[in-house]
Specification:
139 residues, mainly alpha, 4 helices, 0% strand, elongated
């Protein structure tokens, strides 16, 4: 028997929350970057120290550095939609600047110089990411 046209249609899934989930490709970017970062960190440490011999400490450094960057990147992806564009750009700049400063410090440079290099890269990332967020934001 057909229902009257004014009867609302109900669904069994009304209790489930509909949340926006990022695509697999979006989630893959921080993972791939984290793996590349970990390999790069281990390679820098390998060339700086033990005459090209791979050690367990270099492997641990690469895994921890890559995992940390992946987790921080995924966390930033999760909260970025709640942040205003200025804070979002500063968050990406901070993550990028710290990551580049750490990689630079692995090649046996001073902390002051590594911090300066990280600040320069972070400042560049701030300008680029703010520009991208400003020009692509829906008003």
């Amino acid at each position: 028997m057909a229902a009257h046209a004014s009867v609302p249609v109900t669904s069994r899934r009304t209790d489930r929350r509909t949340t926006h989930r990022p695509s697999t490709a979006v989630l893959a970017v921080p993972v791939v970057l984290g793996v590349a970062y970990g390999v790069w960190a281990a390679a820098i440490q390998r060339n700086a120290g033990s005459n090209g011999v791979l050690t367990g400490g270099q492997i641990v450094l690469g895994v921890v550095a890559g995992l940390l960057l992946t987790v921080l990147g995924l966390a930033l992806l999760r909260v970025q939609s709640a942040l205003p564009r200025e804070i979002r750009a500063a968050a990406y700049a901070t993550l990028f600047g710290c990551a580049m400063g750490f990689l630079y410090s692995l090649s046996d440079h001073s902390i002051l110089r590594s911090s300066g290099i990280g600040a320069i890269w972070g400042g560049a990332m701030l300008l680029v990411s703010f520009y991208v967020f400003y020009t692509h934001e829906k008003t």
